[in-house]
């Protein structure tokens, strides 16, 4: 009788995936009506020290997933991470360095909101090891900020950026939104021009969307028409291009050499560890031929109780081949320059046959092209109607 053998793994990888780390700090001063992130209005004192303890305990459980790989980037997201005291953040980063191998040039980004920072705090973050900021400005127009439920005004936004410069940050992003309630084309363009004038290295320029389970979804505000929003997009894109910002992803613009390394890892289907309340992670086991996604407990108090006991994971699942094809494309096709065809196979561990039929369908529809240098590249129409393009891969089997 022949010996039974294990079935061939679904995914067959030839090299380890690049690895990043996402850290979620869930508290904010006030929940914005458009926000669907796992953020919670702070009531009482911020439990900074207890939360850092929980995060470090969580990281200790994540070390096995690193498989000795160096962390190329760390991103502190929220919530409003800049609410945390610099000393608490310094202890956290020191703990990360003890438990994980951070690359010598590791990009360490902290999200900060105007109204929750000052120069001493920014200088403290810089001393702690943060080398990149992402400042949630959203708009420089007072009425737009009020409609968005933001706690800051235009002057606070300007001061936050000036303070970042003064504290020594030469690499920072400005978050900017368009298609805001009752916003005019002139206001959207003025916001973009003001952002450019502040000389950030990176600008995230994205459309307001009404996400489920938000206050705006329950009570929708009056938004500009679709034609006006598209006009805003095109006009602002032209202004950003003229100012030297490369449009490298659907909503991301960067000075040469200043693309966000952490987000590029997401968009090219790299691995990332997720720690903190509601954090998500994706890990690839090259030896076993598996790709696993997981999520941590969402409620901060539940996370604080369970992380120390190693019970912070609320759900996890392994991707199927069809999952991997769709998820890879959902991320990679956001990139304006496309991705090499070889990367499709390297990052999913699948052969080209898993992609071929859907790629042919998308090319016939005029939404995707395969360039002379073997890159998959969305056409202008494909980029505008990205959901339709992705539908080709959703239907693929």
Characterise this structure.
A 9-stranded mixed sheet has the order 9-10-8-7-6-5-4-1-11, with helices on both faces. A 3-stranded antiparallel sheet has the order 12-13-14, with no helix packed on it. A 3-stranded antiparallel sheet has the order 15-17-16. The relative contact order is 0.13. Helices cover 40% and strands 23% of the residues. It has 15 helices and 17 strands. The protein has helices at residues 48-66, 86-99, 119-128, 142-147, 154-166, 185-197, 215-218, 226-242, 261-267, 300-307, 321-332, 341-348, 353-364, 380-384, 386-395; strands spanning 19-25, 27-28, 40-41, 71-78, 102-112, 132-138, 172-178, 202-207, 246-249, 252-254, 271-276, 280-285, 290-296, 313-318, 339-340, 368-370, 375-378. By secondary structure, it is of the alpha/beta class. Strand 16 (368-370) and strand 17 (375-378) form a beta hairpin. The protein has 2 domains: 19-265, TIM Barrel (Alpha-Beta Barrel), CATH 3.20.20; 338-397, no CATH class. Helix 2 (86-99) packs parallel to helix 3, helix 6 (185-197) packs parallel to helix 8 and helix 13 (353-364) crosses helix 15.
Quick structural overview:
The chain has helices spanning 48-66, 86-99, 119-128, 142-147, 154-166, 185-197, 215-218, 226-242, 261-267, 300-307, 321-332, 341-348, 353-364, 380-384, 386-395; strands at residues 19-25, 27-28, 40-41, 71-78, 102-112, 132-138, 172-178, 202-207, 246-249, 252-254, 271-276, 280-285, 290-296, 313-318, 339-340, 368-370, 375-378. The chain has 397 residues and is α/β, with parallel strands linked by helices. The chain has two domains: 19-265, Alpha-Beta Barrel (TIM Barrel), CATH 3.20.20.70; 338-397, no CATH class.
């Amino acid at each position: 009788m022949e010996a039974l053998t294990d079935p061939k793994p679904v995914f067959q990888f030839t090299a380890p995936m690049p690895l990043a780390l996402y850290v979620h700090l869930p508290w904010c001063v006030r929940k914005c009506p458009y926000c669907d992130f796992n953020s919670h209005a702070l009531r009482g004192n911020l439990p900074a020290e207890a939360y850092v303890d929980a995060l470090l305990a969580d990281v200790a459980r994540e070390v096995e997933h690193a498989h000795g790989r160096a962390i190329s980037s760390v991103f502190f997201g929220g919530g409003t991470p800049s609410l945390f005291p610099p000393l608490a953040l310094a202890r956290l980063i020191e703990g990360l360095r003890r438990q994980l191998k951070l690359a010598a040039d590791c990009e360490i980004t902290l999200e900060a909101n105007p109204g929750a920072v000052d120069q001493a705090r920014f200088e403290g973050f810089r001393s702690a090891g943060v080398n990149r900021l992402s400042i949630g400005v959203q708009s420089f127009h007072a009425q737009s900020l009020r409609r968005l439920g933001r706690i800051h005004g235009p002057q606070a936004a300007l001061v936050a950026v000036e303070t970042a410069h003064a504290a020594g940050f030469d690499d920072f992003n400005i978050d900017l939104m368009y298609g805001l309630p009752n916003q005019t084309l002139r206001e959207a363009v003025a916001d973009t021009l003001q952002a450019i004038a502040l000389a950030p290295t990176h600008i995230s320029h994205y459309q307001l969307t009404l996400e489920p389970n938000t206050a705006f979804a329950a009570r929708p505000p009056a938004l500009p028409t679709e034609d006006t929003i598209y006009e805003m997009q095109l006009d602002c894109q032209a202004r950003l291009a003229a100012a030297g910002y490369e449009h490298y992803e659907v909503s991301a613009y960067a000075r040469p050499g200043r693309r966000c390394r952490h987000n590029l890892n997401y968009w090219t289907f790299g691995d990332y560890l997720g720690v903190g309340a509601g954090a998500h992670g994706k890990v690839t086991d090259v030896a076993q031929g598996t790709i696993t996604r997981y999520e941590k407990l969402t409620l901060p108090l539940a996370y604080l109780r369970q992380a120390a006991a190693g019970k912070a994971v609320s759900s996890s699942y392994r991707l199927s081949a069809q999952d991997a094809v769709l998820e890879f494309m959902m991320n990679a096709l956001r990139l304006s320059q496309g991705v090499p065809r070889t990367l499709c196979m390297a990052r999913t561990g699948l052969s080209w046959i898993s992609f071929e039929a859907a790629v042919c369908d998308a090319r016939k529809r005029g939404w995707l092209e395969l360039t002379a240098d073997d890159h998959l590249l969305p056409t202008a129409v494909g980029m505008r109607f990205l959901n339709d393009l992705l539908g080709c891969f959703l239907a693929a089997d």
